[in-house]
Amino acid sequence: MSAPIVAGEQSQINETPQPAADAPAQVAQAAPQAGSQAAQAPVQAEGDIAIDDSNSAYTDDLSTYTASLTSSVLNFPSENGRRYSAFREGTYVFPNDEREQDRMDIHHEMMLKACDGRLHLAPLTNPRRILDIGTGTGIWCIEMGDHYPDADVIGNDFSPVQPNMVPRNVKFEVDDVEAPWAHPIKFDYIHSRFMAGSIADWPKLVQTCYDNLNPGGIAEFVDGDFLLYSEDGSMKDSWLEKWNSDFVRAASLGGRTLRPGLQLEEWVRAAGFEDVHLEKIRLPIGLWPKDRQLASNTSKTFPIYQKNCS
């Protein structure tokens, strides 16, 4: 399993990337394209928010949980012992229960370990507006809000499962990233991570991200190829190989690829990004790696795969 990373920066800003990070692609500004649907602003949440008054970083100023907390959005359906999103029911096929949230948080820890503790590889310089699409539990947004206290950090998702107590510069929205966007102000940095299996039209999503960047804005896409392979051929004809290939094929037949990492660079270039940079990260499963860093990554990938199969 591997996780390619592609990012982009507007061509007027010519910065030297940090030695440990890879330079994102340069982006040329483009006018937004008209969508077939009228853009609708994400519905806003009303409700009591838990605030920690003892910490000045958590106030009731911008810690408003701006997802639409209407009864319909919170009326999560259940099936076969798992809980699912109520917003545009059936569009997002993965659960949103605590078991799934634990899996997503392990994903976050895995990528931090694989990226030497960095929340992003893009060389950001004082971003003012940050968007995380498909934010999940919101853990990445919360850590980015702490790291960039002067930036407004927005995370959107189908499910309002994020915590109420967040840094004052962080807020969450319930939204569908494949519908036309209605944000009145563009972003300096757009982040997308592990949306495999969730997106029907990847080229359209990448183009939408491009169109919603400010001049100088950066987009970073982190996603994988979830078709397992064996470097020494030991997995050939195994039940694990058969199950995995059937699972990937079924997702593809359902219109949701589990292998977006293979085409990320192509989609990013087609959207108009320039100086595109691609980095591939190996994510081994099992205890076989002799390389210390790869073996360290395994401590997270193996439990994730166990949860994926359960």
Automatic annotation (TrEMBL):
Residues 17-43 have a biased composition (Low complexity). It comes from the Eukaryota. One of its GO terms (molecular function) is methyltransferase activity. Residues 1-43 are annotated as: Disordered. It holds the Pfam family Methyltransf_23. Gene3D superfamilies: Vaccinia Virus protein VP39. This is Methyltransferase. It comes from Imshaugia aleurites.
